[in-house]
Specification:
It contains 15 helices and no strands. It has 284 residues and is mainly α. The protein is globular.
């Protein structure tokens, strides 16, 4: 009996409510960040006719319990099916709050898994994991992720099938390589350089736009739209990104081009919020 007890891993107390608040505040940081190409900010609806900052705030209010709940499920080492069930309920709450507008479906999935993984790791270790290690923890659900049903009629899944690109499910199953290899290094470098939070977030977002085969961009602009968006992002980075004088004006001009083409890198925005959460949870 004693041997069995010694073999069981220790379970440490995790502040699930704090992790939930960090998730919501990370989504708010993404919303508040400006200027952003084609995306909703407190000052602009971007390339969207059906949503504004108020829509996002109603969505965040509706999701305020979800991230706490999925953190709690992570501490209990809940199954992927349990995590998915929480996500489905959260999506329904979001749609009720927004009148059917999809503001955070991608973040419910990606950020939800990362919150659960962070909570699970903290419960086992007694301390937070590094951001990159939290990403890798998500691979524990790779099997059930690959078997989870997809909605073939959603705009993102239609774009995924048409253009034969990987989606967020494949990212999650692989431990979010775009977060580990693109977003987190860019965000850490910007923060270490001492720029403001918004500048660091804008810098990271543009790195993501330049690297991600964003299904939202493919849905709205096809392969040509995606290529144009990536080229604009790469040019901004070559010109010094947020470390060069006048960067907000240059990014505002890029935003105008996105809006004129009705392009919106929503997938990159979701990853940006995830990256900010991952850095914040390191100190949780």
């Amino acid at each position: 009996m004693n041997a069995v007890r010694q073999a069981l891993p220790a379970v440490h107390r995790v502040d699930s409510a704090r992790l939930g608040r960090l998730a919501i505040s990370s989504l708010y940081a993404e919303l508040a960040c400006a200027p952003k190409p084609g995306l909703v900010t407190p000052f602009s609806t971007g390339s969207h006719d059906d949503m504004d900052a108020g829509t996002f705030l109603r969505s965040l209010f509706a999701l305020r319990h979800y991230y706490c709940q999925i953190a709690g499920a992570g501490t209990q080492e809940a199954s992927f099916e349990r995590l998915r069930a929480l996500g489905i309920v959260a999506e329904q709450s979001m749609l009720r709050a927004t009148g059917g507008v999809n503001t955070h479906r991608g973040a419910i999935f990606s950020l939800g898994l990362l919150v659960a993984a962070a909570a699970r790791a903290q419960a086992r270790r007694g301390s937070p994991l590094a951001a990159e290690q939290v990403c890798l923890q998500v691979t524990q659900w790779a099997g059930p992720l690959s078997q989870a049903p997809l909605n073939p009629h959603s705009p993102g899944q239609r774009a995924r099938a048409q253009h034969h690109v990987a989606g967020v499910r494949e990212q999650a199953a692989a431990g979010f390589p775009l977060l580990r290899e693109v977003a987190l290094p860019a965000l850490r470098a910007a923060r270490q350089a001492g720029v403001t939070r918004d500048a660091a977030l804008c810098h990271t977002l543009i790195h993501l736009v330049a690297a991600v085969d964003d299904l939202n961009l493919l849905h709205r602009g096809g392969a040509a739209g995606l290529a144009w968006a990536k080229a604009e992002a790469a040019a901004f980075l070559r010109d010094g990104s947020v470390f060069a004088p006048g960067w907000p004006q240059r990014l505002a001009r890029i935003d105008a081009g996105f809006v004129a083409r009705r392009l919106s890198p929503g997938g990159s925005a979701d990853l940006l919020a995830c990256a900010w959460f991952l850095l914040q949870q390191e100190d949780a």
